């Protein structure tokens, strides 16, 4: 890969951050679209994001991206100047423009021709908003060719007094050019603000023999006469903030810093006329000048971009380190060394260091779900347009951090869920009015950490699941027998069967009966679970429960009928050894344990996984209290507890497929393989019939 390729990759990585800021800002503006005015800071942040993309794209001659960014930027500039009034229609156009800008960036990154992708109709709509009073056809698109202008100094007393002359001193750094920037493009932006001239200072340029390619010896001084504010000039250099030495001063302030020569009285009088008192810097300008100086003196926060493949390799090495630690622990235990020995002390230090390395690597690998949620917002907008429905999309918990691999694999299942929520969940406006609801439906996407896992929910305020219809379709398709008696939750689970669909016609959104099946399969491959809850007339919630990481976890190593298994620590509420009098039989096979006047169902893991035919002697076993995603506590019975340690997660999906009740596997210190239990699936796999119904409302007095 060449140096220019590295610079190009850096630009597109920065585009990801800028697009995230753009969508975030538009989302904030959407919340205030009905207000009298938009928040100025948010509008400025959105404008700077588009402006920065445009500046970087120009450096790589991405004409379509530059052209569209310019149209988008023009509308945003009118918004921040107050010349265009805020409206919902304007925000919709801006959101579509942001989506199209994302597509253009993705196309440019892949090296494809953007000409066919360029949306002329959307560009025309932006131009229409940019010329609200013209009533004429959109003007031809501008030629962005750079034409330098030299402005002679004259004593023309007819010059409008609302213009100011600024002296801009600009010195680039090597990092500025390494990031794909070009000062010429900055000068082009200044040309849009007013009349200017550029002077190049080459006084520090060394002889050719002493010249080093990575040293910058050229400085520029720009004299700009404009009616715009200092903040508008500062915005031009926003993209190169921290990559250059920059000074922006009004001409009179620049002259005040120098020792003026003794001038004749006539010249002093002329100078007084050119610089009237009205041109004195405002408090805002002085504040911006101080801020500019502070930016120059302060160093940017140190950061480094690392190839994700390298991070993944390092994660794997950390996993092997944890396995090696377990091997050493096993060897020391087998040797019978006392706890007070130096070897034991060194091992404990090794464990601490290994844990610190593992936690820091997980922090590097973790990413916020915010970009994923922004992508789903676009899916919701496009789906609502296709379905002809008015839908409001809300997000909660955008800062929740999840393993990068988990985020990547959530795109497809969440896309299916969002599209189904729009198509099947939210009713038509007419039906919503009849039900006493607002015409605009609401879909909420949320994320939160819970018991060492991440819970992602998609909720709508629609009609809910029509369970009689679902049951009828399942019987007609032969998916279940006609005499089957199913609970509400079991009927809801029918939606995940392959080929099941409630749609009468196949549309661009749904109807083929593969979406929900794909969702469950994708989530199970991540070691997660899918739950559905629905209330007729009020809406439906689909929840994903996923592991925080796919690398290392804290587990409790237990004995299950002579087999070594691991239960995630995060799933365990407490452990106890029950007394015989606290164990009760409900029905023919169901056992419960009394804990603090509550009856908790017991599930023998040895029976669940087929290691014994009947429940063992529970009073001689250890109970692990776990809580399901539905907040239902269960007691998992095991024969004993060996240890509590970090274990490396080894997926079974690639070689064996999904195993019910098993999340993954791990390698122990003695080289043996142990299964990592999924407590939620284990309880779902074996629950005595009627046990939960019998326990409903049953408490000890």
């Amino acid at each position: 890969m060449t140096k220019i390729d590295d610079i190009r990759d850096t630009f597109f990585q920065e585009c990801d951050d800028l697009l995230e800021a753009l969508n975030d800002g538009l989302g904030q503006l959407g919340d205030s679209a009905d207000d009298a005015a938009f928040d100025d800071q948010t509008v400025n942040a959105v404008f700077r994001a588009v402006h920065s993309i445009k500046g970087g794209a120009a450096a790589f001659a991405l004409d379509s991206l530059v052209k569209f960014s310019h149209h988008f930027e023009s509308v945003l500039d009118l918004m921040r100047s107050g010349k265009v009034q805020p409206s919902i229609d304007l925000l919709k156009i801006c959101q579509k423009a942001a989506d199209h800008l994302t597509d253009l960036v993705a196309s440019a990154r892949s090296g494809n021709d953007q000409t066919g992708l360029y949306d002329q109709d959307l560009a025309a709509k932006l131009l229409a908003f940019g010329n609200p009073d013209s009533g004429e056809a959109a003007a031809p698109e501008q030629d962005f060719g750079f034409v330098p202008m030299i402005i002679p100094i004259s004593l023309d007393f007819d010059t409008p007094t609302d213009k100011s002359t600024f002296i801009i001193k600009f010195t680039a750094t090597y990092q500025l050019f390494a990031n794909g920037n070009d000062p010429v493009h900055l000068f082009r932006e200044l040309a849009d603000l007013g009349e200017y001239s550029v002077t190049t200072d080459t006084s520090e340029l060394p002889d050719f023999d002493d010249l080093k390619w990575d040293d910058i010896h050229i400085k520029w001084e720009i004299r700009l006469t404009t009616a715009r504010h200092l903040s508008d000039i500062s915005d031009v250099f926003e993209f190169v903030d921290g990559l250059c030495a920059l000074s922006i001063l009004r001409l009179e302030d620049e002259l005040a810093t120098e020792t003026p020569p003794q001038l004749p009285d006539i010249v002093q009088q002329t100078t007084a006329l050119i610089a009237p008192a009205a041109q004195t810097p405002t408090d805002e300008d002085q504040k911006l000048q101080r801020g500019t100086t502070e930016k120059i003196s302060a160093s940017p926060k140190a950061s480094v971009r690392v190839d994700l493949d390298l991070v993944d390799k390092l994660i794997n090495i950390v996993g092997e380190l944890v396995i090696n630690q377990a091997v050493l622990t096993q060897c020391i235990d087998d040797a019978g060394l006392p706890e007070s020995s130096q070897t034991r002390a060194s091992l404990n230090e090794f464990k601490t260091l290994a844990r610190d390395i593992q936690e820091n690597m997980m922090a590097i690998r973790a990413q916020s779900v915010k970009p994923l949620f922004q992508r789903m917002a676009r899916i919701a907008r496009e789906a609502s347009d296709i379905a002809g429905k008015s839908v409001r999309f809300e997000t909660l918990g955008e800062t929740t951090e999840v393993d990068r691999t988990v985020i990547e694999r959530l795109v497809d299942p969440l896309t299916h869920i969002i599209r189904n929520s729009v198509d099947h969940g939210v009713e038509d406006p007419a039906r919503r009015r009849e039900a006493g609801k607002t015409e605009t439906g609401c879909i909420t996407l949320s994320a939160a950490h819970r018991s060492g896992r991440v819970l992602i929910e998609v909720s709508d305020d629609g009609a809910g699941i029509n369970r009689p219809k679902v049951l009828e379709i399942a019987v007609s398709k032969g998916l279940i027998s006609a005499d089957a008696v199913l609970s509400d939750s079991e009927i809801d689970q029918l939606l995940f069967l392959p080929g099941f669909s409630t749609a009468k016609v196949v549309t661009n959104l749904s109807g083929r009966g593969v979406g929900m099946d794909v969702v469950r399969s994708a989530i199970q491959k991540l070691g997660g679970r899918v739950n559905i809850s629905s209330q007729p007339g009020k809406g439906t919630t689909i929840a994903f429960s996923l592991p925080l990481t796919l690398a290392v976890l804290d587990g409790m190593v237990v004995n299950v009928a002579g087999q070594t298994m691991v239960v995630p620590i995060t799933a365990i509420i407490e452990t106890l050894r029950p007394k015989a009098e606290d164990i009760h039989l409900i029905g023919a096979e169901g056992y419960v344990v009394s804990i603090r006047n509550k009856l908790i169902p017991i599930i023998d893991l040895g029976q669940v996984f087929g290691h014994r035919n009947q429940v063992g002697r529970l009073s001689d076993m250890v109970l692990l209290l776990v809580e399901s995603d539905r907040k239902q506590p269960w007691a998992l019975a095991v024969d004993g507890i060996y240890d509590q340690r970090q274990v490396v997660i080894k997926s079974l999906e690639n070689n064996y497929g999904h195993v019910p009740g098993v999340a993954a596997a791990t390698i122990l210190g003695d080289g043996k393989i142990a299964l990592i239990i999924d407590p939620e699936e284990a309880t779902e796999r074996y629950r005595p019939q009627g046990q939960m119904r019998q326990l409903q409302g049953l408490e000890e007095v």
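Residues 31 and 38 are 10 Å apart (CA to CA). The chain is about 45% helix and 20% strand.
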